[in-house]
Each structure stands twice: as C-alpha cells, then as structure tokens.
C-alpha cells in the first residue's frame, strides 16, 4: 500500500476435520524490488483513492485496488487501498475478512491488473 504501509496475510484451505486447528504464521516478506510499480494509497471514509507510484517487491506482480469497511465495533467506516500485491490477493471475494493488527477489513471490492515497469507507466 506504499513504503510505510504494508499488509501481509496468510491463508490455508483444508478439507478434513480439525485441519484448521494449527497456527498460521505471518508470511515472510521479501522486500527486494522486482522492477514493477503500482499506484499506492490508503484512505478512510472513501471508496476510492489515488496516490503516488510505489515499487513492488518480491512476488508482487499485480496492482490491487481494495475497498470496503472497517469492523470497529458499531462504527464501520469505509476505506480504500491501492498498491502492489501477489496474485492470490486478486481472488479475495466480496465479504472476505482481512484481519490486521488492530481491526478487521471487510472487502466489498477487489480489482486487479498486472503491475508494470516504470517505463510502461510513463507511456500511459
């Protein structure tokens, strides 16, 4: 979501009883730049945001735009985020809950596109 904002999540699908009793670890974060870029921003009380370009790292080959609401007790403010993402984030469906350190994001929209090199962005 930008140089100061990073959201990492991990999931595991299982097909048998009690297979979800284990602990999901925080995914390892590869901060090596991969030559791709995406617009990045975070906004509260809005459904969309625009921001400067950020450099993607590791396996982040997609640009993602997320929106939804924050579960914060009875107060449910809207939010919008954009940034680099791995392909798996593109499969997040409306209603998906993304836990963070302090609250839960409930997604209403996920849009993905392939990340591009700085040269390709300048050509737009």
TrEMBL record:
Pfam families: UPAR_LY6. Residues 34-93 form the UPAR/Ly6 domain. SUPFAM superfamilies: Snake toxin-like (SSF57302). InterPro entries: CNF-like_PLA2_Inhibitor, LY6_UPA_recep-like, Snake_toxin-like_sf. It is found in: Secreted. Keywords: Secreted. This is UPAR/Ly6 domain-containing protein.
